[in-house]
Amino acid sequence: MSTTTSAPPVRIGALAPLTRPGWTEAGRHLLAGLELAVAETDAAGGIDGRPLDLMVRDTAADPRRAEAAVDELAGLGVAALAGEYHSVAARAAAARADALGLPFLCSSAVLDALTERPTDRVARLAPAQSHGWRVYADFLLAAGHTRVAIAAEPSVYWAAGTRILRDHLAPRGGTVTTLDASAPTPGPLCDALAAGGATALLLLSGFPDPAVPIVRAVRRDPRLAGLLIGAPAGQPEFAEWAALLGGDGAAIPFLRYLPERPTPLGARVETALRARLGAAPSFVAFEGYDTITVLAETLRAHGTDREAIARSWPRVTVEGSRGTIRFTRPAGTPVRQWAWPPVQVADRDPAAPTRFRTLHTTPA
Description:
Structural class: alpha/beta
Order of helices and strands: EHEHEHEEHEHEHEHEHEHHHEEEEE
Low-confidence stretches: none
Number of helices: 11
Shape: globular
Number of strands: 15
Distance between the termini: 33 Å
Radius of gyration: 20 Å
């Protein structure tokens, strides 16, 4: 039973992509996790008797909308900012939050350069892209894939991913060839793959377009039988992938940030998230839950002053749904970072595309 009183709420700003061109399914899962943790926090007495007020703003993956939302939420007196899935929107939000002195706990965006300069005001739960994508590159090498093609679209995020993969694979005997994913049809890309001899194709591109047409074209091209398709950014995690691609979307390895076996808290949270979503929760939903769990513990221990929250990141130790969360600043990382969440490489089982297989893991 809730023990919160009529005291004014503690306001938390939340950013998520809830409309197109943002990845709305990811936004919905992120919001479900945030809202579940708010409800549990309030049921446990809130923040010294004060309820949490989650003030949600849609970024639609647009950096300008993210900046405007941060300005608005700061003016409304939020104690901290939470959320966001898309790296380009999160980077804009982080820069603006830092400039305004507003602490921001980023849930899901992985771009290493989340801010241009080191800051104590921004912390992040998701692993830096360079960490997770190196794990993915190690998976490729262990599976014997040294000739890798990348179907890439122009963006800071995809360019960073290409660079990480190339830098990690090249010293280990791997080669990376970049192909244009933005062509009007995937035919030329299939021709280039057939001529190039790559054994793996990685999709560094938007979803559903052009990723879905590329997958369909590759699956149907007899010249490319046996070619591994991969999606390190995690597109196959979501139900829409399976709905659009069916069996064609199976056996496409991707990164997800979950432990190999759930903790007792994780199992309970999974059940509650499934009830809210009406479907299996993605790792993004757990990231949302952990974001509010960390912020609630921080607010209880250190109060609602923005500067006090920002100073507290190095002292945070919280049991989240995926393990114990502590923040450090790994070399080359400009923000406070959970180093590291558990990382899996998984895929959808060809025998049952709604079921996931774990192919490779790292410990929490």
